[in-house]
């Protein structure tokens, strides 16, 4: 029996299907490694059979894809294409700089935007070398545990952060910051203009990021590297990011300080 108090259940049937599909896509977007049908059903609080029917429809449109014999699913390439198209202006404007940055530091780099308390990857360059970090467009991650997220969170006032951040930050690794530690670190990020994630999101992976404050919107550029290289190359990554930021903002224009400070 349906629950009339459930906002998804209370919608008209055709709208309800869209709402359920959106909930499934959000669940997959928050779990880059993919999820089983049971895990998805648990997250979106729907019967497994219902989730399966929607997954099949999404898979036919390439919005979702199977990740192999395990039976799990992740976001499909068509989802990434949709994001790419909506962000076409910024992507076409900065792609050459992302390529140059990746070639310079020999690491993967990404362009991301902030959506509530999460960051969303809208473009990426994957470096070609034996030990590398691989990810895809459309991936979401908690802003508090990534350099891309922290550099954009630093643009908000402390009052605004109280509303944006969860009351308790989920511990993703043993290095994940507490809420109090994050707030304190953001003060330093505002001064240095560079954010660092030291294995706070994924064990063995470090990220470094700067903000892009342009008339096309607010974004961040990140370098994503294995921790074994990040430890010795961190200063090089930071300097390369600052140079890249200056070149991009010189080309496409920088948002006024007043506009940024008004958040």
Write the layout of secondary structure elements.
Layout: H1 13-29, H2 37-44, H3 48-60, E1 64-66, E2 73-75, H4 77-86, H5 88-105, E3 108-115, E4 118-125, E5 140-142, H6 147-153, H7 158-164, H8 179-192, E6 195-198, E7 205-214, E8 217-226, H9 227-252, H10 257-261
Antiparallel strand pairs: 1-2, 3-4, 3-8, 4-5, 6-7, 7-8
Helix pairs in contact: 1-2, 1-3, 2-3, 5-9
Describe this structure in words.
The chain has 263 residues and is an alpha+beta fold. It folds into two domains: 13-75, Arc Repressor Mutant, subunit A; 81-261, Beta-Lactamase. It is 48% helix and 19% strand. Strand 1 and strand 2 form a beta hairpin. The termini are far apart. Residues 258-263 have low confidence and may be disordered. This is Transcriptional regulator.
Kindly list the characteristics that best describe this protein:
Arc Repressor Mutant, subunit A, alpha+beta, 263 residues, six-stranded antiparallel β-sheet, Tscrpt_reg_IclR_C, 48% helix, WH-like_DNA-bd_sf, Beta-Lactamase, single chain, two-stranded antiparallel ribbon, DNA-binding transcription factor activity
Q: Main beta sheet, described? A: 6 strands, antiparallel
- Rg over CA atoms, rounded to whole Å, is 19 Å
Gap between N and C termini: 45 Å
CATH class of the largest domain: Alpha Beta
Structural class: alpha+beta
Can you identify the CATH superfamily of the largest domain?
GAF domain
Shape: globular
* CATH-scheme architecture of the largest domain: 2-Layer Sandwich
Number of strand elements: 8
Structure summarized in a few sentences:
With 263 residues, this protein is α+β, with helices and mostly antiparallel strands. It contains ten helices and eight strands. The chain has helices at 13-29, 37-44, 48-60, 77-86, 88-105, 147-153, 158-164, 179-192, 227-252, 257-261; strands spanning 64-66, 73-75, 108-115, 118-125, 140-142, 195-198, 205-214, 217-226.
């Amino acid at each position: 029996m349906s629950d009339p108090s459930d906002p998804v259940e209370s919608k008209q049937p055709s709208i309800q299907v869209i709402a359920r599909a959106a909930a499934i896509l959000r669940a997959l977007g928050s779990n880059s490694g993919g999820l089983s049908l049971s895990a998805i059903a648990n997250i979106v609080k729907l019967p497994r059979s219902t989730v399966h029917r929607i997954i099949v429809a999404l898979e036919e449109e390439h919005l979702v894809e199977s990740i192999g014999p395990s039976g799990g699913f992740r976001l499909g390439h068509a989802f990434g294409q949709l994001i790419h198209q909506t962000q076409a202006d910024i992507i076409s404007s900065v792609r050459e700089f992302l390529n140059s940055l990746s070639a310079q530091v020999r690491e993967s780099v990404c362009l991301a935007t902030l959506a509530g308390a999460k960051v969303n990857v809208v473009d990426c360059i994957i470096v070609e070398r034996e030990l590398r970090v691989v990810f895809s467009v459309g991936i979401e991650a908690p802003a508090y545990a990534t350099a891309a997220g922290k550099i954009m969170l630093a643009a908000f006032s402390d009052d605004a952060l109280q509303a944006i951040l969860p009351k308790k930050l989920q511990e993703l690794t043993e290095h994940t910051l507490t809420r109090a530690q994050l707030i304190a670190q953001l003060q330093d990020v505002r001064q240095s203009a560079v954010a660092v994630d030291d294995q706070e999101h994924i064990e063995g992976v470090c990220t470094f990021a700067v903000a892009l404050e342009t008339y096309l919107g607010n974004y961040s550029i990140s370098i994503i590297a294995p921790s074994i290289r990040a430890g010795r190359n961190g200063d090089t990554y930071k300097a390369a990011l600052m140079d890249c930021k200056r070149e991009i903002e010189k080309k496409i224009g920088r948002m006024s300080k007043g506009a940024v400070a008004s958040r």
